[in-house]
Amino acid sequence: MSAVLVAEELEKAASMVTAARRLLATGTMVDLSALEGRVRLICETLAAMEREEGQALLPVMERLIADLDRLAAAITERMDPPPPDTAPAPDAAPAAG
Is residue 96 included in any domain, yes or no? Predict the structure, then answer.
C-alpha cells in the first residue's frame, strides 16, 4: 500500500474517532470494532513500509494517536465517571471553627 493510500486510511480512522467521540458525548454506546480493524491494518502496513516513506506520515499518525487518546479518555470517563463535587452548596453557612 502506498503512502498516499495509508494517509487516506489514517484520515478515515481519524474521522471514525471523531464520530465515536461525538456519539459518546450524547450518551450513545459505540461499537469500535471497525475502527480497531482499520487501525490494525494501518499499523501492519506502516510496519512493512520503508522508514523514509513512513516518516512522511508521522504528523498524521501523531494526530490520530492524540485523537485515540482523547477517545480513550472519553470512554474511561463514561465507564467510570468522576465523583460528584463535594464542595458545600453556595448558600450553605460556613462551619464554625
Answer: no
In a domain, 19, yes or no: yes
Cell output for 38: 482499520
> What pTM, to 2 d.p., does this model score?
0.74
For residue 78, what is its C-alpha cell?
Answer: 463514561
Note the helical H segments in 56-95: 58-79
Quote the strand ranges of 1-97, DSSP E.
Answer: none
Q: Which residue has the cell 513500509?
A: 49
- 60-85 in b/e form (b: 16+ CB < 10 A) is bbeebeebbeebeebeeeeeeeeeee
Whether the CB-CB separation of 5 and 41 falls below 8 Å is answered with no
What torsion, rounded to 10 degrees, do the Cα atoms 47, 51, 54, 58 define? 110
Give the structural domain span for 55: 3-78
- Residues 53-75 have pLDDT tens digits of 888 899 999 999 999 999 999 88
